[in-house]
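User: Run a structure prediction on this.
Assistant: Running it now.
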Amino acid sequence: MIGRMLHGIVACDPNGVIAVNGEIPWTLKEDVQMFKHLTAGNVVIMGRKTYESMNCEPLKNRYNIVLSHKKEGIVELISPWCIHCPDICSVIRKAQEIMELQRCGAWVIGGAEIYSLFLPYIESFYVTRVSEEYEGDVDIQETLDKMRDWKWNELFSFKNLATVYRVVRNNG
């Protein structure tokens, strides 16, 4: 079993908003660069809605795993770099297999339901808190509330536009 070997990565506003109409409501190129740097060469785990928000294009230089209970329009093996799994157990098995073969890590990249579903398996999160509040229709506030007792370490800020935290699960 994978244990708590997964990492999460998310950007949200002060209220936990992560999306509006299937898109991130802000542009922060420094955060995108950090995302690319941290996840490159690793497994990325996402839900169908996140995958569709990327025009059904797998992220380059990453092993993409898409969790979806929907069968229509999604084949089991989308491409060598993108695999569909119908349930959390198959995602964890496939991620573990790739991590062992490729000696890489695994990152949960969204959306809100996926963060909540995988939280028990996540050891640490990189959370970018955008300073400005945005209107949105998807938020992760409930997941963030469950992480209140985790250790929050401020890493750095992007010109007062956002603050990046590494959030680590407390052992015990």
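Residues 6-168 form a domain with the Dihydrofolate Reductase, subunit A fold (CATH 3.40.430.10).
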